[in-house]
Amino acid sequence: MSIILDDAPALVVILPLLISAIIAFISSPRLAWFITIVTLFIHILLSIELLLSFSSFGLIIYEFGNWPPPWGISFKLDGVNIGLQLLFSAFVLITTIYSRKIFLSEIDPDDSGKAYSLWLLAIGSLNGIILTNDIFNLFVFLEISALSSISLISLGAGTNRKALLAAFNYLIIGAIGATFYVIGVGFAYAMTGTLNMNDLIIQLTQYSEGQLAIFAGMSFMLIGLMVKSAVFPLHLWLPPAYSYAPSAVSTLFAALATKAILIFFVRILYEVFSIYNSYLILFLEYILLPLSLIAIFAGTIIAIYQDDIKKLLAYSSIAQIGYITLVFSINDNSGVLAGFVHIFNHALIKGGLFMAVGYLAFSINDRVTLQSIEGLGQKFPITSYALLICGLSLIGLPLTNGFISKLYIFQALYSNEMFLTIALVALSSALAVIYFWKIVEKLFFSPKGFEASIEDPAIYIPIWIIAISIIYFGIFSSPIVEFSSIASESLIKGGTN
Amino acid sequence: MVSGIFIIITSQNYIKKIVGLAIFQTSVFVFFVSLAKIIDGTAPILNSQNNVYSNPLPHVLILTAIVVGVATSALGLAIVLQIYKNYGSIEENEIKKEELKENN
């Protein structure tokens, strides 16, 4: 037993990857789904075990094959990713429970084994992105997750052939992003001779003046990661990919994929290259901050003009990623804290919204546009109220976790006296009300009188778990804030020594 | 490197885009391999005559990256095949035209 527990950091990645190879040969949809659920249940147990051992021993570094770093590949579990690991485990389990009927309605039932195989592949590789401590290993995980998610997105072609174009765009743009990242890794390796992140921090101190090659490498890496995490203006692959993918798939990616990469992005920024503070501040102040502000406005305004609700949510994701990078661009503890709080909260909110919208699409058997959802609030009240809660949280109403996010974002901006930015963020939040209100108006205040129809508990229970946790974390926000403050402390501390 | 990106951006044909991507990736692989070369270095085999040898690690990394590149191209071509089956074309401008017609 203890052997298994010792290897838990590796197992959370390897288990989904292994099962994914087996599950591809199963043709029964029910069995494929059941095996996925069992796998993810073991996955969450392992994550809880990791949390327990983290809380008693602190930092965990797992060395593959007992090769000590910098020679071997290692996984690192520290304050930065422990919270995300737990959220990730819990969320993929809930999404998979939810996915059974919805996912199968959108693909050929004979392919369900293969579809769940890709699903597990994506989960395993995203978890690898969260845990890895090796910059080249990250590239491998990035590409596994990209390829599996592209295949999953292209499965949406069963209902709409535009999914193929979206998948192809994502493939090209994603591959360019990943290759940029590899160029950066090449520069960093040429200068330091190491790929291990902890060792990289030590090796970089000999170039404390900063060498051109290192700056070039750093820029390539950051741009590559910005493409992958859809930071404006490198986001163009995201809206079509999320809106034409099968609903269950968009739920998984909207909630977790970009977040996992953002975590690595801040690690690179604040942990690895933290000794180049002057260069870092230039990047943050003159590139990331303006881009984030544009992202917030562009995302929100384009979302207002969208007719298709999944597309609307995808553009709102661009704006929300903008909020996260905005606070990350404040080079201090409070900003990073707010960023992590929003990463957690936004994962829940967007996940819940995509789930609810996916259910509506499933039950009307059509794309959810502003026209087609008219009056569905009366027809499917249980799901619609969950959608309302998630949406109110997206706007940032008190008693929801979105409010906690906004609170910390404003606090971080206020303590750095960025009053103009505060005004702009407040304005954009007000604009977010517009696009959400359009949905609410069509859903609930429509003249069409529908009878309430029976909803499927297997689908609405997962949605309500998310909706209730949104309210719960809105009132008792301490778990999320605590994880975020552990994360920001260990990031900023990692920078000073 | 630049010519690969140039092809991706300018060509309308989806297969040409994938070729451009492959050129772009290959140039990066060559960059990595060039990092490994040490003047007068030989293959990293332990014997008494040669003490200078090239760094094998970038080669190993690129072996991984080549596999990833092949998988990317394969998946891309598979999607192009499906696009052709669904749209009857693999030219970006023709497909855009058809999409516009559909929307109107």
Q: Please count the beta strands of chain B (DSSP E, at least 2 residues each).
A: 0
The profile of the biggest β sheet of chain B is: none
Topology pattern of chain B, helix = H, strand = E: HHHH
* Structural class label of chain A: mainly alpha
The portion of residues forming beta strands of chain A comes to under 5%
User: How widely separated are the two ends of chain A?
Assistant: 37 Å
Distance between the termini of chain B: 40 Å
Contiguous low-pLDDT stretches of chain B (5 residues minimum) are none
Output the helix-strand order of chain A: HHHEEHHHHHHHHHHHHHHHHH
Could you tell me the number of beta strands of chain A? Answer: 2
Mean pLDDT of chain A: 85
Give me the secondary-structure category of chain B.
mainly alpha
Radius of gyration of chain A from the CA trace? 22 Å
Q: Which pair of chains has the greatest number of interface residues, and how are they split between the two chains?
A: A-B, 27 and 29 residues
Could you report the average pLDDT of chain B, rounded to the nearest whole number? 84
CATH classification class of chain B: Mainly Alpha
General shape of chain A: globular
Describe this structure in words.
The complex is a heterodimer of chains A (497) and B (104). Chain A has a domain of 222 residues. The mean pLDDT of chain A is 85. In chain A, strands 1-2 form a two-stranded antiparallel ribbon. In chain A, helix 4 runs antiparallel to helix 19, helix 7 packs across helix 10 and helix 10 runs antiparallel to helix 11. With 497 residues, chain A is mainly alpha-helical. The radius of gyration of chain A is 22 Å and the shape is globular. Helices cover 72% and strands 0% of the residues of chain B. The model of chain B has no long low-confidence stretch (mean pLDDT 84). The longest helix of chain B is centred in the last third of the chain and has 31 residues. Chain B has a single domain, classed as Helix Hairpins (Orthogonal Bundle). Chain B has 104 residues and is an all-alpha fold. Chain B starts with a helix and ends with a helix.
